[in-house]
Write a structure and sequence with these properties.
single chain; 276 residues; mainly alpha; Growth Hormone, Chain: A; 2 domains; 10 helices
């Protein structure tokens, strides 16, 4: 092999190495961007759960309703989230984690818009319930990144999302305090609508779908049993301060929850494709 051929081969090798470095840099930059976008979804969800807390005390007067009705603005979110998280997680495994992440963020936007334009207590409760679906975006986002990123980056990605959740919680309380003191409380829901829409559009434009699919079908019986178990457990816990721990409603629902949990556990051992 002549010196000219050796020089040419060396030049080709350097060019290929440079291209590999560019691809690696682009891949790393893309991964950071995807992490930022998914993390922004977690921040939006965290904001939606903390913004309302500081203004709960003024809402009975603003809405001309009772404190018990206002408490349902939190309870409805909790109940819907408890059902949505495992169900959307399973659907994400079957039909795509990104698809279910977009669905959950879309629910955040829809619920926020509904609560932003109404002062009707019933509609506010419905809107907050729709927002509760968005809590599934947190485990869905973590699961999606786990399937997209190299294994050595998954731990740091989870840490970043956890930090974004903390940032959302830390920002939500002072922002709500300022809005509650100087502006109409509906501004809080416009804030969550905007942040949710930004996370939705970012995910739609930047984050790819997970290549992982488990297939199968939805365990409808398991979903119904789990939903009933969680509702009958969380409802008396949420209302215990008003009902009292010795109230027949509290005791009855807790007992029913225990029975349903046993039936759910039994069903999961008998079904070929269980929910969990």
């Amino acid at each position: 092999m002549t010196s000219d051929e050796l020089t040419e081969l060396a030049a080709i090798e350097q060019e290929l190495q440079a291209e590999a470095e560019i691809r690696a840099h682009t891949s790393a930059r893309r991964a950071r961007l995807e992490l930022l976008v998914v993390g922004s979804g977690g921040l939006a969800v965290s904001l939606s759960q903390t913004l309302l807390v500081p203004v709960l005390a003024i809402l009975p007067g603003e809405l001309d309703t009772t404190p018990a009705n206002v408490e349902w603005l939190l309870t409805s979110t909790l109940l819907v989230a408890a059902v949505s998280v495992p169900l959307l997680g399973r659907l994400g495994d079957m039909f795509g984690k990104r698809r279910m992440l977009l669905f959950s963020l879309g629910c955040l936007v829809v619920g926020s818009l509904l609560t932003a334009v109404t002062s009707n207590v019933a509609l506010l409760i419905v809107g907050r319930g729709i927002q509760g679906v968005s809590i599934a975006a947190i485990p869905l986002g973590i699961s999606l990144l786990s399937s997209l990123l190299p294994k050595d980056r998954v731990g740091s990605a989870i840490a970043v999302i956890s930090a974004m959740l903390g940032v959302g919680g830390a920002l939500g309380l002072p922002i709500a305090g300022v809005v509650g003191e100087h502006y109409d409380f509906h501004v809080l829901f416009w804030i969550t609508a905007v942040t949710g829409a930004a996370a939705f559009l970012g995910t739609l434009a930047i984050v790819p779908e997970s290549p992982v699919r488990t297939g199968g079908k939805v365990d409808v019986i398991g979903a119904v049993l789990l939903s009933a178990t969680l509702v009958t457990l969380l409802l008396p816990l949420a209302e215990s301060a008003k009902w009292g721990w010795g109230d027949p409603r509290t005791l009855g629902l807790l007992a029913l929850s225990a029975v349903l949990l046993g039936v759910f556990g039994w069903s999961q051992t008998r079904i070929r494709e269980p929910l969990v």
